[in-house]
Amino acid sequence: MQPSVSPGFQRRHTLPASEVRPLNAQDAISVFEIEREAFMSVSGECPLHLDEVRHFLSLCPELSMGWIEEGRLVAFIIGSLWDKDRLTEDALTLHKPRGSTVHIHILAVHRTFRQQGKGPVLLWRYLQYLRCLPSVRRAVLMCEDLLIPFYRKCGFKVLGRCAITVASMSFTEMLYPISGHAYMRRNSEAMRFPQSPLSVQSPEAEEQLDV
User: Fold this and answer.
1) What are the GO MF terms of this UniProt record (predicted)?
2) Does the global pTM surpass 0.85?
């Protein structure tokens, strides 16, 4: 005789408490809503517009990562491949399938889940996942100067001033070398959470990055 289980208990366990997975075009609206709220209030500019979000999630979904809690997107990263040493304006909209550099376009966390360390944990997991992609040699991003200490603590190094400007804003380009590639069988492991949260964020950077 099987033990009885209450319907409420079954419902609570229908979805995993936390999971990480690649995103797809169906996630675009949820992604854009988080991005718009996070960035418009700070800089007045979104790194990616909705059509650009759909564009990258259709072309290279494997270079995105979303943190899902009980079926709800709470944090995400979107990336694409780039084939030059430094970022140019074309890197904002193009995906170069033969490139060996991952351009991280955006990292954002839903407003109700900020100040919990989710941003740095997701970034760490994403960088570990990139080690499972044999063709990837490095990850790059551009950020405002306030965020340089945050990304340095995450292992990024300053490359110099970025050639890209948005309105009146200028950026610093940063690099993370991808070395010691893992076996592909570890790909699924890179989609799990570390046993304990990473302590890499500073309060000032966390507030600006909304993580």
Assistant:
1) aralkylamine N-acetyltransferase activity
2) no
